[in-house]
Amino acid sequence: xxxxxxxxxxxxxxxxxxxxxxxxxxxxxxxxTVEAYERDTRQFFQFLTGHLGAPPAISxxxxxxxxxxxxxxxxxxxxGAGARTLGRGLAGIRSLLKFLxxxxxxxxxxxxxxxxxxxxxxxxxxxxxxxARRVVSQGDQxxxxxxxxxxxxxxxxxxxxxxxxxxxxxxxxxDDLSTTADTVLRVTGKGGKTRLVxxxxxxxxxxxxxxxxxxxxLDAAKPLFRGAKGGPLAxxxxxxxxxxxxxxxxxPETATPHALRHSFATxxxxxxxxxxxxxxxxxxxxxxxxxxxxxxxxxxxxxIYDKAHPRSRSAA
Length: 316
Fold this sequence. Notes:
The protein is mainly alpha-helical and 316 residues long. The protein is 56% helix and 3% strand. The chain has a two-stranded antiparallel ribbon. α1 runs antiparallel to α2 (31-52), α7 runs antiparallel to α9 (201-213) and α7 packs across α11 (257-270).
């Protein structure tokens, strides 16, 4: 796409500057997000400058048609932009137009009527079984205080052994899993939906170790997992610990707390687990959401085939 020294008339430049300021100050968007929106709208104005033969003014975008925006997306696609980039760019243009519409300057109906580019489905990225076992091992935790190492191991074990979301694990109270007889856990997930999840002996043992070492009294109605000062444990703490483990254990960048939930589903499926049962264990409202893990398993089988089969391309 051609570069132009002047990408818009002063009225549109000033309006865009006010919009970007409102994103940063009023909506408190991250600096990188504001920077991306600035870049996307600049590229759109550059396209319009070439399309119209002159830098655009507010009057030139007052009644944009879907066809105008489709032409821009086609030009960006021709420059190599992918679906995610195009989707974000269109979102930025819509945001700017709605900002101007609230001030009575433009009509954003054309942009709202245009369907966003279809986004490619990205497969979950689970850990290998051996990496998952290392992550949940108390001996591989990096915290110096034994009780904190036991706490981290217990939380991560619940994510992997029970397929919990981190919010679900940290939402447990002192009354949950208080004895080794508690082999089923009642979990409240998204939308307030409750499900029953079996608890493996390894998870019960990890919880018992944490309870034994924790210096704080774990009241029945208060959070089970505590921070260093005794307050509720924040998800960011576990995420930070996982980041340290990625470096120490030479794990991929995709190794996050949520990747342990993906690992739970993928490893169950690989061992012959029933898809409907896995759906119930994960608390997915739709089977289609769970079916994405069949793609992970198929992709891994194809990778193994490509590396090992005598007639594969890489073995030829």
